[in-house]
Amino acid sequence: MKFRKVVLLLMLLSLWGGTMLFADAATQKVRVFINGIEQDDGGLVSESRTYLPLRQIATSLQAIVEWDNQAKRATVYKPNVHMFLFRNNTVFGNVTKGYQGNFKVFAQIDNLKTDITAVKVSIFDPAGKEKVIQTGNVSPTNDNFWYATEDIEYKFESSGKYPIRFFVKLKGSDEWTPVSEKIISSL
Predict the structure, then answer these.
(1) Residue 11 covered by a domain
(2) First-to-last CA distance in the chain?
(3) Pick from 171, 152, 170, 172: which is nearest to 162 by CA?
(4) Which of 23, 73, 79, 145 is deepest in the core (most CB within 10 A)?
(5) How many structural domains comprise the chain?
(6) What residue stretches are annotated with the Copper amine oxidase-like N-terminal domain (predicted)?
(7) CB 80 within 8 Å of CB 168
(8) Residue range(s) defining the domain that contains residue 81
């Protein structure tokens, strides 16, 4: 009786181990790089198809993901957002370390294929600390519009890159999704 149980247990473990080896061989993990940066979550290759984490890819590409839970459908939107930075009516992108002054952000948004309710423009210091420049409710009636901030006074205290990010808020959501980025370099 004891011998039977041992043989049965060994057969079950062998079958389970073989199944796990087959599953590992049938599905391979792949590393995913976007603009030269390896992503935290990799993809999977199964039956000659590659599966990637949609939210992470969309975030990296500054796209919007809309999830419909009832239909089990994800829709990705990538609006064109062009930002221009103005200081004293002159376009700029570099400042000297310690510079303190005013600037404005103008954004041109087109190819917007989903409903949004608000926009936000923020600047991030080299350490990643966010300062909101301006938020505003919007209700575009077509797929393109312009957005301009008021003058903001800001001090570039350290050397490094200061990303300016343009965010949108989807209708029915409380989350901000970044859809564009411009860099100010403090030298």
Answers:
(1) no
(2) 80
(3) 152
(4) 79
(5) 2
(6) 37-89
(7) no
(8) 77-186
